[in-house]
């Protein structure tokens, strides 16, 4: 690298953050929006409980891959199940 080269050093990216309003209406609206967005990613429960699609894994790597893929695909279903169990425990 030469001494005269200043590529990448001449500008500093900056991001300005606008102060968000913290009124109760705004907070509730944002929470509702994010909750609806999260729940919209829920997979069908029939697909979640379909035991006919389960086959024996071929190797340890296959087990790891399947677990990661399943957790990623059904993450909202698992979260809702855990929340339901926690709710029932609190009752």
Automatic annotation (TrEMBL):
Membrane topology of the entry: Multi-pass membrane protein
Going by the UniProt record, its keywords in alphabetical order are:
Membrane, Transmembrane, Transmembrane helix, Transport
Q: Which domain of life is it from?
A: Eukaryota
Q: Does the keyword Ligase apply?
A: no
Its GO CC terms? endoplasmic reticulum; membrane
Subcellular location as annotated:
Membrane
Transmembrane parts of this sequence = 71-90
Xref: InterPro entries: Prenylated_rab_accept_PRA1
Chief subcellular location:
membrane
One biological process term from GO is: vesicle-mediated transport
Q: What role is this protein assigned?
A: May be involved in both secretory and endocytic intracellular trafficking in the endosomal/prevacuolar compartments.
Q: Which family does it belong to?
A: Belongs to the PRA1 family.
* Protein's name according to its UniProt entry: PRA1 family protein
């Amino acid at each position: 690298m030469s001494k005269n080269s200043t590529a990448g050093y001449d500008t500093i990216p900056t991001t300005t953050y606008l102060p968000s309003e913290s009124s109760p209406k705004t907070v509730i609206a944002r929470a509702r929006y994010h909750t609806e967005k999260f729940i919209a990613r829920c997979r069908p429960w029939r697909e979640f409980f379909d035991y006919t699609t389960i086959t024996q894994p071929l190797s340890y790597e296959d087990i790891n891959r399947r677990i990661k893929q399943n957790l990623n695909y059904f993450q909202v279903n698992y979260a809702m199940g855990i929340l339901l169990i926690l709710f029932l425990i609190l009752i």
